[in-house]
Design a protein that fits this description.
64% helix, 4 strands, two-stranded antiparallel sheet, elongated, mainly alpha
Length: 105
């Protein structure tokens, strides 16, 4: 489905006329008429928000990994872990490795 999202208000319109004219009905502004400095500021805010969101996801994954490791460590000696727990632990470890590789770049 074709849509346009306003960088100022974040609203998305699926109206074909809005898409064709690059118009935000909420702000009542043609996006091509917005000054470049305003668009740059809005993009910078969006990038900052994406970074914050990414940091929250990374923190949540780290907490989940620590929780799983603690639960495994507290399991009685010789306990055979269910396959689902092994898979979950593997996936968490892999996700954290991917995040670490991306952060190292």
């Amino acid at each position: 489905m074709v849509s346009i999202t306003c960088p100022r208000c974040g609203k998305t319109s699926y109206n074909l006329n809005d898409v064709r004219e690059r118009y935000c009905g909420f702000c009542h502004v043609f996006l091509d008429d917005m000054p470049n400095h305003q668009l740059d500021r809005l993009r910078a805010q969006e990038i900052a928000q994406l970074r914050e969101d990414g940091a929250r996801v990374s923190y949540a994954l780290d907490c989940a990994l620590q929780l799983v490791e603690c639960l495994i460590a507290w399991a009685p000696e010789g306990t055979v872990l269910p396959e689902g727990v092994k898979t979950c632990k593997y996936r968490l470890d892999e996700a954290m490795r991917q995040i670490a590789r991306k952060e190292a770049k």
